[in-house]
Amino acid sequence: MPRIQRFTTFAAAAFALLCAFQATATSLAQANDLTRQWVKETMAKERIPGMQIAVIKDDRVVFSESYGWANVENRVHATKTTLFPLNSATKSFTGVAMMQLAEAGLVDLNAPISRYLDGLPEAWRAIRVRQLLAHTSGLPDILDEQGLLGGGSEADAWQAVQRLPIGSAPGERFTYNQTNYVLLAQIIAKQSKMPYEQYMATRQFTPAHMARATFGDSYDLLANAATMYSYFPRKTDAPGASQRLSHWFYDMSPGLWSGGGIMTTADDVAHWLVSVSKGELISKAGMRAMWTPEKLNNGADGDWAAGWHVLKTTPVREVAGMGGARAAFIVYPDERLAIVVLTNLVGSNPQNFIPKIAEAYRSTPADAARIQAQ
């Protein structure tokens, strides 16, 4: 090929690549503007005091902002460093921990839990580890509507739940409960030879650069933690009383941290999701297995995979961590997209409006530069 022709071909390719980058940047800017507008409208409509949001596209955080109040009564702004509770979205982190132990040869997810834990009730012993992760164990719940079973200490509740009959045969149906994750924390501690919270700090928080992640609840004195609120009626309110914003308190004892104890930021969760996606915490094969729905005994898919709620399997996969009706992250693995929304309003249910935000980034040609370069 003549030199001038080679140069012309190179110049055309370079120009196409530049255009692709510019299109991507423009589209991302438009998507970010749409997100800002949608967030502000949603916060006003749902009366959400404070919020953090982070958007990950192609393993890169492309949007990260905070809005509103971390504490309404004292006019403390929510910032990117404000701690929000993940509540039950913590279970996704526990799912990654179990996949790590499985890949290290320390846990067999298909093994009965009695291989790793002693002193279990006879009816519990044949339950497989993966059935704990997917809430198909049939176990009774250590929590009731009032909190810990029996209203006493964690130790009392643990004794009480072991005296209850199982609700169904293992693998028979999906039944969400916290006992599953209490047992998973015990397995993690025994097989890793370190407490659950230490394992998470050393094997996930630190390598994923989650600088602010910790454990706690609304009773703990954690610096820079958002105050939790709700519009739900108080027990002492008269029937039909007007809604009012009130404090919301929840108690998360250490034995239940694996099911709901992480306090962190949207940015920290975003960094963690990037690490998961890149195969830095578990292998790509482990990631796919972790997001595959657990099969029930009849061959149907359960609602959960290994620590993750499976929202969709086709045409585009969607998996999520959701907690406390106020925190959520949804991952769209096939589109290399993930969105994290943390709020301090119980009942805000961000999993309901995250898909609207996702639409803006689906229209972003983030792969254009790579396609043009091929």
Provide an overview of this structure:
The chain has 374 residues and is an alpha+beta fold. It has a single domain, classed as 3-Layer(aba) Sandwich (Beta-lactamase), CATH 3.40.710. Helix content is 36%, strand content 16%. The protein contains 11 helices and 14 strands. A 7-stranded antiparallel sheet has the order 3-2-1-14-13-12-11, sandwiched between helices. It has a 3-stranded antiparallel sheet with strand order 4-10-7. Strands 5-6 form a two-stranded antiparallel ribbon. Strand 5 and strand 6 form a beta hairpin. Helix 2 packs parallel to helix 5. It is globular and about 55 Å long. It starts with a helix and ends with a helix. 42% of the residues are buried.
Compose a concise summary of this entry.
The chain is an alpha+beta fold and 374 residues long. It contains eleven helices and 14 strands.
**DSSP summary: helix tally:** 11
Annotation, overall tally of beta strands: 14
**What order do the SSEs take from the amino end to the carboxyl end, as H and E?**
HEEEEHHEEHHHEEEHEHHEEEEHH
* CATH architectural grouping: 3-Layer(aba) Sandwich
Give the oligomer, counting copies of the same chain as homo and different chains as hetero: single chain
For the biggest β-sheet, the strand order reads: 3-2-1-14-13-12-11
Helix/strand class: alpha+beta
Average residue-wise pLDDT? 91
| CATH domain class name | Alpha Beta
Shape: globular
Helix content: 25-40%
In whole angstroms, the N-to-C terminal distance is 20 Å
Contiguous low-pLDDT stretches (5 residues minimum) are 6-25, 364-374
Tell me the name of the CATH homologous superfamily: DD-peptidase/beta-lactamase superfamily
Any idea what the radius of gyration is? 23 Å
Summarize the biggest pleated sheet: 7 strands, antiparallel
